[in-house]
Amino acid sequence: MTKAEKTRNFIVEKTAPIFNMKGYAGTSLNDITTATGLTKGSIYGNFANKDEVALAAFDYNFANNVSKIEAEISKQTTTKGKLLAYAKIYQNFFIGSISQGGCPVLNTATDADDTHPALREKVLKAVLSWKKTIIKLVEEGVANKEIHPDNNSEQIALTVIAMIEGGIMISRLTKKIEHWNLIMDSLKKYITNLG
């Protein structure tokens, strides 16, 4: 790895939590220089602009989450266990074990919805990738006779994603962990009862 690549990676690692907590609009160049200890010139010597840093930070945050989810899924032997791994991993958001600031998909989707098309496109690809992964798991469950073939795999995937992201949003907005726990209990029942 070249010195420039190491510097870029350092910048991304230090700023990814800030972008995730404060959003694109809320993260200033001053936040970036403070977090990295680098000058503005050094930041712009490695990235063309704040947009490039934000895009790289989202990729970093999302990849970090995916790796933790994949590790938990790989421990499971059943399809339902693999689907329940999502609930287990996402329950850690409130103790900060996945990434600082919560879910980068939810945070970035709301932040970049109408204001940053390139960032919105990255989030869209992330959600579609997530949906595709869950669909594949459900189809494996159908093939293994764990899940009834009458179930709609896309509907299941969208429901799981919506319950997780909606649960995060509601519980963060109300600042009530009990709301999160109620929604996650509903998600677990939904997955467990897939016939």
From TrEMBL:
UniProt organism field: Pedobacter fastidiosus
InterPro entries: Homeodomain-like_sf, HTH_TetR, Tet_transcr_reg_TetR-rel_C_sf, TetR_C
Superkingdom of this protein's organism: Bacteria
Positions of the DNA-binding region: 28-47
Record domain HTH tetR-type: where: 5-65
PROSITE patterns listed in its UniProt record: HTH_TETR_2
One Pfam family of this chain: TetR_C_13
Keywords: DNA-binding, Transcription, Transcription regulation
Name the record gives this protein: TetR/AcrR family transcriptional regulator
